C-alpha cells in the first residue's frame, strides 16, 4: 500500500501565519476577542480542525489566549511579547523595575544622539495627554500615554532591536503602571524620566538623560506594590 503525504501540517502552518499577520497588523487589537470559529472557517476556507491547530500554535506562543466558554483573545502582538509576558509571571515586581532600568537607560542614552524634532514633539504631546488624563483620573488613558511615551523614546534610540525588545515587554510594563497607580502616595506625573528626559534629549546630554531615568525608576521601585 502506498501512503500519500498529508498536506494538513503545511496548511495549518499557512493559517497560523495568516492569523499571526492579522494580530501583528492590529486588525485584531490587544485584549480583544477574535472572530468566532464559524466566521474564521468561512473567511479562511479551512476546516475546524485546521483552524484549531493554528489557534493552538498561537496560544502556545503566547499571542492568543483561549478562554473556555468565552472565546479566544489577543494576548500579545508577537511571539516575543507573548514569551515575555509568560516569563514575567515567574518574577517579582522588583525584577521588572531592574529590567526596565537597563532598557530605559540605554534607550535614553542613544536617543540623545538620534531623536528627531518629530520624536521630541510626539513625546511632548504624549506627556501633555498623560498629564491631563492623570488630573481627570482617567487612569487607562494615563497609563497608555505613559507607556507610549517610553516606547517612543525606545524608538528614538535608533536601535530597532532595542525597540523591539521594549515593545515585547509592553503588556507587562503597562500593567505594572496600573498597579503603581493604586499605591498610596504615588505621583503619576513626575518630571523625572519624562519632561526632564525630553529636555535632556533635546540638549543632546546623555548623562542628564540617564540620570532622569534613574530618578524616575528609583521612585517607581519605592512605590511598587509588594
UniProtKB/TrEMBL annotation:
Stretches assigned to the HTH gntR-type domain: 9-77
Keywords: DNA-binding, Transcription, Transcription regulation
Stored InterPro entries: GntR_C, Tscrpt_reg_HTH_GntR
Annotated protein name in UniProt: FadR family transcriptional regulator
